Amino acid sequence: MPSAVELQELLDVSFEFDVELPQLGELRARLEQARWLQDVHVASSEHHSLTLDDMRRLIDSGVGLAPYPAVEKAMAKLQELLTVSEHWDDKARNLIKAR
């Protein structure tokens, strides 16, 4: 997957043409995917600040993206991480209540 910057540059160049290029729709979809993957990467690299709400927000924003293997893989990892995190959050809350 090209970076979001590279895709944006391609889109910017395409606006200079006076023709509607058939691949622009796909290029825009790839740009959205690249931006989402970049957001996921940034959030994942900051484990100490990644919250349950952050994970939910990323999942919600990724649901509407066009299917693409890298997006689907990142989405599955996020969903797994969210499930495990929610489980541990519930356990911690129950232990605090029990005290």
From TrEMBL:
It holds the Pfam family PLU-1. It comes from the Eukaryota. Residues 4-97 form the Lysine-specific demethylase-like domain. InterPro entries: Lys_sp_deMease-like_dom (IPR013637). This is Lysine-specific demethylase-like domain-containing protein.
